[in-house]
Amino acid sequence: MYNTSFFKKILLVASVVLLYSCDKDFNVIGDDLIGDNHFDLAIYNSNVVAYNQQIFPIQSNNLNINQLGIYDNPAFGITTANFATQLTLAAVAPVIGASPVADSIVLSVPYFSHMTAQNTDGSSVYKLDSIYGPDLSKIKLSIYESGYYMADLDPSNNFQNKQLFYTNQNSDFYNAKVASRLNNASNPLNNDAFVFSPNEIRESTSDATGKLTVTRSAPAMRLKLDKTYFEDRILKASASNLATNDVFKNYFRGLYFNIDKSGSDPGNMAMMDFKKGKITIYYKAKTVITTDPEGTMESKTLVLNLTGNTVNLLNQSNTSANYNTAITTPKVTGDDKLYLKGGEGSMAVLELFAPGELDEIRSKGWLINEANLVFNIDSDAMKNSSEPNRIYLYDFNNNRPIVDYYNDGTSSASTDVKKAKQIFSGIINVDPTSKRGTSYKIRITNHVRNLIKYKDSTNVKMGIVVTEDINTITSNKLRDSDKKITARPEIPFTAAPRASVLNPLGTILYGGTPAAADKRLKLQIYYTKPN
Prior knowledge:
Structural class: alpha+beta
Helix content: 10-25%
Shape: elongated
Number of helices: 10
């Protein structure tokens, strides 16, 4: 009895496995091709309607990184990036001492850089990252105390929402700046002829015995500020103004960085993490001790961090005529060229599948194996401009990623988080000879499967933008949130991806209407069908 029962169980399990295996050779409309190759592989190219859209002044406060400088992009125009930040006390209610006298005030903000060589004397050679425009080009940099208070909460909304600041508010900050510029040292490299220098920082200090110590660090913006000004405003401030950072941020409202051209130099632009910056106040003050009632002067430091609310203030000028026409008069039937520009720039809107096309595909019983959007770059128009490393496709209707973004769990093999989600991609394809970009490809397989498989799924419009960080998927609000797309006035357009605001670059892509078929934007669908 035991053996008979045992063999019956084995037979039952084998039967279930066999039936399950046979079932895996078949699938339903819209799913993966699974099992043996019993079907013929085919490709279907679907036309895409794509048109340009201007990104109006947009929220640019508290970004992860900020632009500073001037970037002359031949394909788009000139962007001037100014910046404002609050300051916070590294230690609140500091004990400054009596009769403080400032020795020096040093502003330091590290650059993005990497070491390329190390010399025998211990010094290092660095290359700056995320610098756009000619190396060592000069700009005029003026730093002021800001007179514009950046509140945490919006007073116009009964302090219920966070206060937002926008790309086009430079005049507000410029008009509210306080007194003369603070980086007023006689060396023009400190102001009128400032350059983003790749040189390492070298500091020498000596102890009481005269022993010299040399400290080396990676390149940084390192400027001397007006010591008399900081002595009066900080070291001699009343204790109540330094009691908490909330009080201090209203007393000293921060720094405003204003950028102008330096002579005939074209200028350049750097991406910077100002939150890693600080102001170090080196000073001497009397400390009263029991044996010396008059006190003795001791060397001290007080640190102000460049943290708190920030805003990137972007001015556009000398806009390319082709670019301006494209973003202000998009075509209902689709544009030949798509202009994607970061900052207060532009994007493109995509409409997939013509009316009735999805129903026709469903009726054919196709099994979707892969689906890609392929964007070809206008290499002639982009030949003199820096190219963005990546573009980002998202659900335009709902300002969120599509399913393929979420389903891609790949991470970068390196420490560069910007290279994550390599299946979803959008990473630039580069010609090995010219070293210039040729195309971008974005995989939307699951999105297309869902549209074909589920008749009640919504065929949403897609947005496409340049991105600085594929992991940043939140959206920033437009200042004029009542703006609507010119070509599609029925669609509210109130926000755009934050990662696009971060990126100063742009690219020009072919849309879905060029005469040359090999240049057109394509939705490529690879599918199989039963014999």
